[in-house]
């Protein structure tokens, strides 16, 4: 299978080579195309493909023949790094879009760094992705550490809560997140009626009793859906309808199953993975996506598309600055970090000094009768400028 | 804070603790009975317990769309869990403990921990085959409703309970009733039947009981069967009460139930029940200590919150072991089962 594909592409390249003298420019995508996360990874690949299709004419006019080379990382850091090394060895590849998992992006971007190959991520949120200060790593989604302040803003501005009960699951993730939220809430003058960590996975009766006693306006729980789901179920079972807010640890289709349909109301969480409905400009994109791939587009498809457009526009800009000749990888890398990209599905993209998006967005999802829907979007800024 | 608010709060915390305590009590019986006959701490019991919970989940899942009466579904789940967990426990004894019966006591203890790990991952594997990890009970409608809600025929009773601050769900009441029935049956079997007499004889002196014509291996198997079946019952009750379990959920309640067995005096049946109930209540009271701390203006108590609730049972255990090493109801020559 691989062999035929290879020989076909060699044939195609030969045919093209004789037909025109155009220089070939490639971009690569790294995402899981097989395994449990292949659904999301294929969305990214398809989004990139759509952007490449749209830009092919512009590249042709500039004298380039544009191609996409998709790589499969199987959501595995080792496989992703091996793909990155193969990409680095192909001199025609000038930019990479990827990955889905932060755990893959971190070693893969490090493998690309020595050859100055730029990477634009459509999905990675771990702080460490950009905190390492690599010149080639950029992302167009929000960082994990933006969730705390955003959650606090949502609680005070939208829910108008004056008294908040804060819980965490005593893990680095949950305790860190809840701590950030508490700090931000206190700064806004909100009363914290309780703050406790619990590893309990089943019996929340003492916490529920305390919440019943102290009557907070909202509850923030930093943790993962399978613990918080059980908690919310017991909370609602005790007849308490107070809104519960959490971070992206709640972003799972299992959450309403655990809570049960009747209780899965008034539950909110912040997440970077935008549902497609959150992107007002995505209508045409969604239609094209459906037509091209015969499958509906999801949020990651749109972000893959945006990330690819950033790299493609960056390559064109770099080529223009290079006197119309194919730019070097270093030139593309510098151009993308400095550039501003307008008219994308998720708005304007420009990067700070470490490659975080200057104006990223967090999406607040609300559960109503177990159904998730977009409640609001919050603009967030990275810590550095 | 006024007393009218605080009193229902305390009542509810204690009731929540008692309901949890009944689950602990039935799990603790499995530990204490096996210890009674073999002086072995069956660490695999927490997995026998969670196996029951998984069986209960499967029964409710398969029957979720059937129009069958909810109580009948529960009965099927309980019986299925009793059979599977009971037989599993017998199998564990036959394969893992009996061949080691003459070995030093540390050997079967380590084996028990090994069996426990094997069972955890077997359960995870079996459910994983169907793409599941967290198992959420699909309970019959009404189980999660308030006990004696305003629309039901016993509404006056429900209203009375609510005015004095008792606020429980139907499933809590079912849990306590099933637990009491199980305890009653166990008491009958152990103290009133020939089987019970034979088990008690084996637990007091295996060799002499053998000389009197009692098949001690059979009685040991019977003990594991009964203990495992109780584990199955508690598993279904646990799943019903808390809704979501996974293959690893047995560990926490298992370790607390074991503590309850030691607290009550390991080997003693009433002791295990008393220990379970006490630990359930203590755990919940520790979880709300900060409320009282803040009320009384004791800042130090104010920091003791739900994150410490699991420590409570173990502090009590240490104190008991220092001042009464045989446990609350244990005697120096424990009346073993």
UniProtKB/TrEMBL annotation, chain A:
Keywords: Signal. Residues 1-21 form the signal peptide. CDD domains: PBP1_ABC_LIVBP-like. It comes from the Bacteria. Residues 24-370 form the Leucine-binding protein domain. Pfam families: Peripla_BP_6 (PF13458). Belongs to the leucine-binding protein family. This is Branched-chain amino acid ABC transporter, amino acid-binding protein. It comes from Deinococcus marmoris.
Automatic annotation (TrEMBL), chain B:
This is High-affinity branched-chain amino acid transport system permease protein LivH. The keyword Zinc-finger does not apply. It comes from Deinococcus marmoris. It is a multi-pass membrane protein. It holds the Pfam family BPD_transp_2. InterPro entries: ABC_transp_permease (IPR001851), BCAA_transport_permease (IPR052157). One of its GO terms (molecular function) is L-phenylalanine transmembrane transporter activity. GO terms for cellular component: plasma membrane. The lineage of its organism: Bacteria, Thermotogati, Deinococcota, Deinococci, Deinococcales. It is found in: Cell membrane. Keywords: Amino-acid transport, Cell inner membrane, Cell membrane, Membrane, Transmembrane, Transmembrane helix, Transport. The chain crosses the membrane at residues 6-31, 43-64, 70-91, 173-190, 218-240, 255-278, 285-304, 310-330. GO terms for biological process: D-alanine transmembrane transport; L-alanine transport; L-isoleucine import across plasma membrane. The keyword Transmembrane applies. Its main location: membrane. Belongs to the binding-protein-dependent transport system permease family. LivHM subfamily.
